[in-house]
Design a protein that fits this description.
Layout (H helix, E strand, L loop, with lengths): L9 E9 L2 E7 L8 E3 L2 H16 L9 E7 L8 E8 L2 E6 L6 E4 L2 H11 L6 E8 L5
Parallel strand pairs: 1-4, 5-8
Antiparallel strand pairs: 1-2, 2-3, 4-8, 5-6, 6-7
Length: 138
């Protein structure tokens, strides 16, 4: 019997700092990769992107599907400041989507965390969001 895999148009990967590592768990109404942890934020995001690309490979859903990262580097009550991530050339840019005017760039994801600690008045209320098209992950 042929098994049908249900793939959603939105897959959310929740990324949280867990001491010296990063823990990743998934939320979706369809199939997701398995939860895992990584030693750096960059490795975590790269691995999650690769696993999502592999899961959606050769499926029509990959055309419209999005992978949304919700990244929580700090403990607290995040959400007052949502820093949206975009890549521009060799830089990674973070901008507050809720109108504070906070915007900064860094060469790495770890650099974004350092930038937020410099520019965001209270990081316990902040998080990052990065939305990627699944079709662009390969």
């Amino acid at each position: 019997m042929l098994e049908t895999v249900k793939l959603s148009s939105l897959v959310t990967c929740i990324v949280e700092r867990d001491r010296s590592r990063w823990s990743l768990i998934w939320a979706s109404d369809g199939k997701t990769p398995r939860d895992f942890s990584a030693e750096s934020l960059t490795k975590a995001l790269d691995e999650a992107s690769s696993q999502t690309a592999a899961l959606y490979a050769n499926h029509i859903e990959s055309v419209a599907a999005e992978l949304q990262f919700a990244i929580y580097p700090w403990e607290g009550r995040p959400g007052d400041v949502i820093l949206d991530i975009t890549k521009q050339g060799g830089e990674i840019k973070a901008s507050d989507i809720q109108g504070s005017g906070i915007t900064f760039t860094a060469p790495t994801f770890e650099g974004l965390i350092e930038g937020a600690e410099r520019y965001v008045p209270d990081t316990t209320k902040a998080m990052f969001r990065w939305i990627r098209r699944v079709g662009d992950l390969a």
